[in-house]
């Protein structure tokens, strides 16, 4: 395929800082997910940086070929490859045809993403544990308020994160059909799912039983699941301000959950805290900082 056939913008014709474009074609009559849908082709235009106000997506036609153009920042691709998000886009990028690139930058980006494979599992485990902890704490709060329907919903979400952690720990990439995957492994989390959804006990009793099991999971697996975060905290001698951690580029995908994670890690003595002279705007208060 020649670039001239399609209206694929380059650096000279676009407001985006484009480094190349990758195309992925519809694979026969197989179902290809919502991004391709009924298009024959999706074109990923890879940008060095993107203006949030600029065009993000376009639908185009060339002759009889309908195709979708999606603009993506290379930093987002790197982040998704670590966190496990946007797996469909990652697959299209890694396995699609490079239509054109500037000075081999798209090929280099692919190589960097493949090299991240070793770190990927720890970051994905951290992401799922972050989601597990948030929904588990929320379920606990609802249960204490006797709001058992909301507690039940959050408990289901917690178990889904728990199940993904079990799969990731075995080197298995979680799919959408998470419970079909986990059922074959006969793990504790599937038994908890069955207990929560199909037990003859009252809803209150089911939630309380699963919460107790999740308490044990937090205690026994927190350090293992937070290795990516602990590695970053231990990467320098100076203690970290909480703001520094929430703004760290490698932790972008759990930014909102970092304060909760840190406090739980301190409580379990996996992270230490110290105080430092605070800025004047905090008055007499001293700022807490974190280190290993």
TrEMBL record:
Domain YgxA-like substrate binding: 127-221
Pfam family, one: HTH_52
InterPro entries recorded: NT_sf (IPR043519), NTF-like (IPR029348), YgxA-like_substrate-bd (IPR054515), YgxA_HTH (IPR041143)
Domain (YgxA-like helix-turn-helix) ranges: 228-274
Highest taxon, organism lineage: Bacteria
All copies of domain Nucleotidyltransferase-like, residue ranges: 30-114
Protein name per UniProt: Nucleotidyltransferase-like domain-containing protein
């Amino acid at each position: 395929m020649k670039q001239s056939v399609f209206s694929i913008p380059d650096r000279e014709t676009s407001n985006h800082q484009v480094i190349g474009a990758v195309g992925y074609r519809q694979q026969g009559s197989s179902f290809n997910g919502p991004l391709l849908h009924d298009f024959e082709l999706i074109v990923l235009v890879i940008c060095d940086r993107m203006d949030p106000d600029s065009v993000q997506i376009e639908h185009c036609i060339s002759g009889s070929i309908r195709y979708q153009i999606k603009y993506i920042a290379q930093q987002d691709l790197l982040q998704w490859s670590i966190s496990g998000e946007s797996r469909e886009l990652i697959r299209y990028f890694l396995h699609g045809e490079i239509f054109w690139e500037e000075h081999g930058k798209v090929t280099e980006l692919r190589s960097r993403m493949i090299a991240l494979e070793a770190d990927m599992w720890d970051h994905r485990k951290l992401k799922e544990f972050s989601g597990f902890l948030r929904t588990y704490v929320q379920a606990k709060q609802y249960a204490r308020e006797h709001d058992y329907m909301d507690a039940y919903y959050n408990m289901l979400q917690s178990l889904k994160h728990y199940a993904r952690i079990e799969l990731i720990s075995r080197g298995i990439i979680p799919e959408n059909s998470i419970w079909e995957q986990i059922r074959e492994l006969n793990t504790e989390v599937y038994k908890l799912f069955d207990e929560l959804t199909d037990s003859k006990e009252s809803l209150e009793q089911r939630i309380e039983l699963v919460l107790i099991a999740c308490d044990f999971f937090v205690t026994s697996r927190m350090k293992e699941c937070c290795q990516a975060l602990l590695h970053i905290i231990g990467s320098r001698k100076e203690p970290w301000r909480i703001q520094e951690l929430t703004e760290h580029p490698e932790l972008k995908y759990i930014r909102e959950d970092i304060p909760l994670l840190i406090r739980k890690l301190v409580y379990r003595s996996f992270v230490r805290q110290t105080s430092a002279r605070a800025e004047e705007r905090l008055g007499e208060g001293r700022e807490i900082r974190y280190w290993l």
